[in-house]
Amino acid sequence: MSYSIAVRALCEFTAKVGDLDLRFTPSPTALEGIVGHRTVASRRSDGYQGEVALEGQYQTLKVKGRADGYDPVQNCLEEVKTYRGDLSKQPTNHRQLHWAQAKVYGWLMCQKLDLAQINLALVYFDIVSEKETCLVEAFSAEELKGFFEHHCQLFLRWAEQEMAHREARNGAAQQLAFPHADFRPGQRHLAESVFKAVSTGRCLMAQAPTGIGKTVGTLFPMLKALAPQQLDKVFFLTAKTPGRKLALDATQVILDSATAPPLRVLEMIARDKACEHPDKACHGESCPLAQGFYDRLPAARQAASELSLLNQNALRDVALKHSVCPYYLSQEMARWADVVVADYNYYFDFSALLFGLAQANNWKVAVLVDEAHNLVERGRQMYSASLDQSTLNGVRKTAPEPLKKALQRVNREWNALHNLQLAPYQAYDKPPEKLLQALSSCSASIGDYLNDHPQGLDSALQNFYFDMLQFCRVAELFDEQFLFDISKRDLDRKRNLSQLCLRNVVPAGFIRPRLTAARSTVLFSATLSPRHYYADLLGTPASTVWIDVESPFHADQLKVHIVSQISTRFVHRQSSLAPIVELIARQFTQCPGNYLAFFSSFDYLQQVAQLLAETHPHINLWSQSRGMGEGQRQDFLDQFTAHSQGIGFAVLGGAFGEGIDLPGARLIGAFIATLGLAQLNPVNEQLKHRMAAIFGAGYDYTYLFPGVQKVVQAAGRVIRTQQDQGVVMLIDDRFGDSKVKQLLPRWWSVAPSILLSVE
């Protein structure tokens, strides 16, 4: 059995030393890098060979890659690096890494052509001036062979460990038994469908009801497929923290089972949540965990590799024991984990780490997308960009003198643009060229300044710079899948400000390549209907399989009532308060216990909660508030106990509308006083027009389908096991419409409308 590794990965493992240094020096974009490499190649003689495929073997280690270029006349192999700024300020350990790559390629070329010696050139190409700086050295084949074998030997022990780990993992995974006594009803169907999808290399959309055990039901078959499909990794992607916790809990159940394979499960979290020194910069002169990071990384990596569950706490313990940064240790362990549990953005974002690693290393991965209905809105957010003029005004005041002219030009073009706009909001066919040119020029100026002053910007200007880069990047992609709009505020003031937005409205074009890059991608949720809505917006391939898993629950477990005498429309809101309060109080009196009450906004929630407290003070109630932290959200949930009685008030579509598990007496009912429709505003109306133009279903795609999806998710909090009993009150006359009823779960039996005595 041999272990295959790319030249770059080998050198990054064996030749990186010294500090972790993230002082921001803007490197070329991927496109600029490609153009730079092509420019260098175009300047060479006719016999010049570009992109030379090379490979070599050292014991059980196979090393392969593509050298940037080789000139047979000069007998010179080139390693091309694009850059911008002052090359003399390049960190020493970066240059050392570049030479290591060149030397490995040099030996592979000597071996391929049977050369006794070769010239190696590091070619640094400045993408701004288009000038080349060439560092050339001559090496004998024997020197390069020794260098190659030394670095292979450094990696070989790890490679042998990884081969043994993979062999043991795959062998045990084939013997893995389901970690529970039996499958729940519907769970076997889900698991078998996932296994078939990964076996045939297809995408799967699985609509499966809450409480079926979707997490174990999808993860288990993927682990069974590790060996037969020769999968390198499984990525379990979640939209929110509770989903990540459920995934980790499921992996722990599997790890605790009698037939558990030797897995490494890694949890990846956001940088701001992992940072031990938020007051320090990410370089060795500031942060003690960055100083000598690469010197201490091997020991930390080895220690981490010996653990099965690398959740946030376990990884932090290893990192601090070895004095390395927990966040960047997690990025390193993403290369060596078998299962990675992370947020959507780690795979779907423009610069997603997991997707980038998978592509660079040719990994065969399987992807599980939990609560996939969230990917529509999250995708739109990832592929959109915005700029706020108040932020620009703030950074203009504090910016270094050399940058003020460029920032002033941006402000001037911005003002010229929005001064022509009379309405508070307006959408345009495309972003204006003059403004984009000003933004591009300003970004370049800041980039050049940062090269000379890597610590010379305050955080506000640096963040605005990142926002400009994102805005320019999205502008290059602008087509009918986007909206460009300007929102003005402070209209009563002489000088009003505005916000510019490039809104992605159809993320399918960016999501589809990520879905198809994997061996198989499984998108699962309790709410993936209508099928065509999610297929259109997520870009699932034509060969995608869609299943609707039968519910393990029965209609007699859940009483669903439509309260059609009440309208929760904004114009009827005031008159709806008393009837809703009396409905809640009557139900609570008839059947005391724990309930959730969902509303369309915090204002609506507070009005009903206040009236209920005034008229029925004996009923215990607690409310969601704006901007709750994780601790506050947990405090809210902790009030739902098996012995408590009361009503928790929450906003539909918020933190408590999905992804929470309150089985048994912890929750026996829900009041949903809204159809969940998005707010009627100019932005959503523009979205409706665009959805109508593209899909012929503006209202449904903008308002109805997303709204009812939130309702079904919220109602799904009530019945979590086959022993649960509960009630759901759908409070709005529009729930009686046949089009809405068709979107409700098939297993529900909607009872006749409740009659109210209070008007």
Topology of this structure?
Layout: E1 3-6, H1 7-14, H2 30-42, E2 49-58, E3 61-71, E4 76-83, H3 92-113, E5 117-126, E6 132-140, H4 141-174, H5 187-200, E7 204-207, H6 214-224, E8 233-238, H7 241-256, E9 265-267, H8 271-274, H9 293-305, E10 309-310, H10 312-321, H11 326-333, E11 339-343, H12 345-348, H13 353-360, E12 365-369, H14 375-382, E13 385-388, H15 389-398, H16 401-419, E14 425-428, H17 433-452, H18 459-476, E15 482-489, E16 497-504, H19 508-517, E17 520-525, H20 531-538, E18 545-548, E19 558-563, H21 573-590, E20 594-599, H22 602-615, E21 621-623, H23 630-638, E22 646-651, E23 669-672, H24 682-695, H25 698-715, E24 726-731, H26 738-741, E25 750-751
Parallel strand pairs: 1-3, 4-5, 7-17, 7-18, 8-11, 8-12, 9-10, 9-11, 12-17, 19-24, 19-25, 20-22, 20-23, 21-22, 23-24
Antiparallel strand pairs: 2-3, 3-4, 5-6, 13-16, 14-15, 15-16
Helical stretch tally: 26
Distance between the termini: 77 Å
Task: Give the count of structural domains.
Answer: 4
List the strand order in the largest sheet.
10-9-11-8-12-17-7-18
CATH architecture of the largest domain: 3-Layer(aba) Sandwich
Question: On the 0-100 scale, what is the average pLDDT?
Answer: 93
Number of strands: 25
Which term fits the overall shape? globular
CATH topology of the largest domain: Rossmann fold
SSE class: alpha/beta
In percent, how much strand structure appears in the residues? 15-25%
Largest sheet: 8 strands, parallel
Protein name: ATP-dependent DNA helicase
Pfam family, one: DEAD_2
Organism: Pseudomonas fluorescens NCIMB 11764
Keywords: 4Fe-4S, ATP-binding, DNA damage, DNA repair, DNA-binding, Helicase, Hydrolase, Iron, Iron-sulfur, Isomerase, Metal-binding, Nucleotide-binding
